[in-house]
Amino acid sequence: MPVPSAYPFRPYQPLRVPVSEMERRSQLRYENFSQRRSVRDFSPEPVPRAVIENLIRVAGTAPSGANKQPWTFCAVQSPALKKQIRVAAEQEETEAYAHRMPPEWLEDLAPLGTDSHKEFLETAPWLLVVFRRIYEPQHDGSQRNNYYVNESVGLATGFLLAAAHEAGLAFLTHTPSPMNFLTRLLNRPKNERPYLLIPIGYPAPDAQVPDIHRKSLEDISAWY
Ligand code: IYR
């Protein structure tokens, strides 16, 4: 018998997937996801707002600490705002590449061919800016903390990116550092902190990606 609770519960019996079908689906999912690559050269081709709305809806289904759902997803389409974001990001990145990142970090980035130019911030049809909500302001003016905010927002963002890939879109998980300029440019409230900046769209027709490789199952797992 289920334990009685002060809060309402309801039955949950999602449709069972037969094991053979489970194997097939997980294999297909892996094959599809293994094709995903981070993209830095975008086509300006538009992506319908309805698609972005669905991706954000998917993100909102992620598990979160105490079901606080401590996230806000800002979708930026305005060319003027994208330009402001690019200018501010490039300012920080110029400083970062020239002075802030230690030689070892620059060495690790060399195979990716990145630099302080962030044209994709203007070219991609959408910029998704993910904010984590540290606390929730209460009606009486007090604050109530959220739990496992980084983990929760990471999961939600992962859900969103998986859905974007499945929808046939390309993206980059961009982390200009520091990114407080996003709080300012998007006029976000004090309880929100920028988490990730994600240009999303189609790759440019001549887009290239670095020839890098993924670790194998053996490399990333241990079995007991
Ligand atoms: N934020 C910089 C540097 C950078 C850092 C990491 I770690 C990367 O995987 C890629 C880039 C930039 O976006 O160029």
Outline the fold blueprint.
Blueprint: H1 19-33, E1 42-43, H2 49-59, E2 71-76, H3 79-100, H4 103-109, H5 120-123, E3 126-133, E4 135-137, E5 143-145, H6 149-166, E6 170-171, H7 180-185, E7 192-203, H8 217-220
Antiparallel strand pairs: 1-7, 2-3, 3-7, 4-5, 6-7
Helix pairs in contact: 2-6
Bound molecules: 3-iodo-tyrosine.
Q: Can you describe what's shown?
A:
This protein is α+β, with helices and mostly antiparallel strands and 224 residues long. The protein has a domain at 55-194: NADH Oxidase (3-Layer(aba) Sandwich). The chain is 39% helix and 16% strand. It contains eight helices and seven strands; from the N terminus they run H-E-H-E-H-H-H-E-E-E-H-E-H-E-H. Strands 1, 2, 3, 6 and 7 form a five-stranded antiparallel beta sheet that branches. Strands 4-5 form a two-stranded antiparallel ribbon. A hairpin with a 5-residue loop joins strand 4 and strand 5 (143-145). It is globular and about 65 Å long. It starts with 18 loop residues before the first helix and ends with a helix. 25% of the residues are buried. The model has no long low-confidence stretch (mean pLDDT 97). Bound molecules: 3-iodo-tyrosine. 3-iodo-tyrosine is lined by residues 93, 109, 112, 114, 174-177.
Task: Give a quick summary of the entry.
With 224 residues, this protein is α+β, with helices and mostly antiparallel strands. The protein has helices spanning 19-33, 49-59, 79-100, 103-109, 120-123, 149-166, 180-185, 217-220, and strands at residues 42-43, 71-76, 126-133, 135-137, 143-145, 170-171, 192-203. It has a domain at 55-194: NADH Oxidase.
